[in-house]
Design goal:
Layout (H helix, E strand, L loop, with lengths): L1 E3 L5 E5 L2 E4 L13 E8 L6 H4 L11 E7 L1 E6 L4 E5 L2 E5 L3 E5 L3 E8 H16 L1
Antiparallel strand pairs: 1-8, 2-3, 4-10, 5-8, 5-10, 6-7, 6-9
């Protein structure tokens, strides 16, 4: 699920302030503490090979976030692909992988335990 800023419903619009809110934007039921993450990902980076060995060879942590700039292709367990572009808010459920189609700057909020396991796995793959 992703949504561009101008597609988020406006809830308050007064001189000097505008508030937008998208309700039902993912489900955090059953997760504990969240971690806040900032990633810089270079064009052409594909994390799929680094996810091999995880369940389904996919990231099994959900993420909520904002793509500051760039473009990412997100492939889900069912084979569906979503393109996230700079300025989009997004929710990625467990069971996905990420490829950068442009240099990208991204902010993520993720369950710290679940995503910590994925990051540790990625680090071990990178270290060989």
């Amino acid at each position: 699920m992703r949504i561009a800023k101008n597609d988020i419903p406006v809830k308050i619009d007064v001189p000097g302030a505008k508030a937008r809110q998208q309700v039902d934007f993912g489900d955090s039921t059953g997760y504990g503490k969240l971690g806040a993450e900032y990633f810089s990902i270079g064009k052409g980076t594909d994390i799929a090979p680094l996810l091999q060995g995880l369940e389904g060879d996919l990231c099994q942590s959900p993420h909520w976030g904002y793509l500051i700039e760039g473009e990412l292709a997100i492939t889900f367990a069912d084979g569906a692909v979503d393109t996230v572009r700079g300025g989009d808010l997004f929710y990625w459920p467990p069971g996905h992988t990420v490829r950068a189609d442009q240099d990208s700057e991204i902010i993520l909020f993720s369950p710290q335990h679940e995503h910590g396991l994925v990051i540790d796995h990625l680090k071990s793959k990178l270290e060989g």
